[in-house]
Every structure is written in C-alpha cells, then in structure tokens.
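TA notes. Do not distribute before section.
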Amino acid sequence: HLQLVESGGGLVQPGESLTLSCVAPGDTLAPFAVAWFRQAPPEERLGISCINKNGEKTYIADSVKGRFTIARDNAQGTVTLRMNNLQLEDSAIYFCAAGDIDDFQVVTPFWIRGHGMDYWGKGILVTVSS
C-alpha cells in the first residue's frame, strides 16, 4: 500500500510563494501519475494539477494556471507543486494523490474529482492571509 506524505505548507501573505512536495517514504512514485488536489471546506475537494509518469505531460486547472507549476523528479522520488503569487482564495488543505492513469487521462479533467487516484496523502494546510 503506497503511503504519500505532503510537506511545505504553511502561512504566507498574498503574493508570496510556497512549494509543496509529495513523497512516498520507502517506496517510489515512478509507476504512477501524481496529482494535487485542494479543499477549502465546505467546498468539495478538486484537482488542480496532474503530472504523468515520466513528467512530460501535465494538466493545470484554469484557477491556478500561470501561477502554479507541477514537476517531478523520479530519481529523488518527489513531486512538487510550486505556487507563486498566492492569493487569499488559495487557502486550503492540499492533498497529493497517485494513480495508474494514462497520459490522455492526465491531460484531461478525468481525474479532477479523484477518479483513477488510488493513493492519497493526509493533506497539508496552506493559509494565505494578510
């Protein structure tokens, strides 16, 4: 059973940046596409970015396009979400998830509500506040 751990969250001011990381301690993310989701209760959890197994294909939701970037380093076993110019509405719990979905599914909203994601982290809090 793959366990995912997120790190890098915290409290920042509007306009600042954070980089979230997702790792699978003692295991590897290489066989999986990996996605980042976020949830600000009472809203539903929705996907914001996904990356395929070799890192060559990505999907970025319109809500964060131009500000957030997803990347992976399979040698290091990490998937990162670089978040620039954070805004108040970016405050949420951020989750990483992994699943065996194909490249076509990665670049479409197929996974955006969690379809195809078999493994989940516990989430990490990002708070943007002035």
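Switch to the second chain here.
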Amino acid sequence: QVQLVESGGGLVQPGGSLRLSCAASGTIYAMAWHRQAPGQQREWVAAITSGLSTNYADSVKRRFTISRDNAKNTVYLQMNSLKPEDTAVYYCNSWPKATMTWGQGTQVTVSS
C-alpha cells in the first residue's frame, strides 16, 4: 500500500505563495491535489498524468501549477496569488479516482 505524505503548508498573507509537496512511498501514476475547507466537502484542485498533462479547477487556473518528479515519486503544487478562500487542508491522491489511503494533509491558511 503506497503511503502519501503532504507537506509545505503554512500561514501566508493574501497574494503570497506556497509550494506543497506530496511524497509517495511507491510508484505513482496520475495524481491530483484536493482540498477541504472547514465545514465544506473535499474538492478537486488540480491533476497531472504520467505524461505531464495537467488539469485545473476553474478557481485556481492561472494561479496554481501542478508538477511532478517521477524519480522521487513526488507531486508538487505551486500556489501563487493566494486568496483567503484558498484556506483549506490540502491532500493528494490518485486521479481520476482517489484509490489510495488519504494522508494527513497539509494546512494552508491565507490571512492578513
């Protein structure tokens, strides 16, 4: 069973940037980032295939960039121009179906 460990979250001011990492303990294929804000359902944010094709939710297009390092079994999420509504716990998982065990996530808080 591949384990996922998310990291890189923190407190940032509106307009700031963060880079999240998702390290997998084994081989990964198409992967996605998801997020869950307090009191809200988990939502999909961005996805990347093994061939490096990417897709983004409309709410993060042109602000977030998903990438991967296959040699390190790691997926990244570069988040720029952060807004308070981006505040959430961010998770990664396989895509299009989240079949892996969810990690603990990493908290991103955007606030002045």
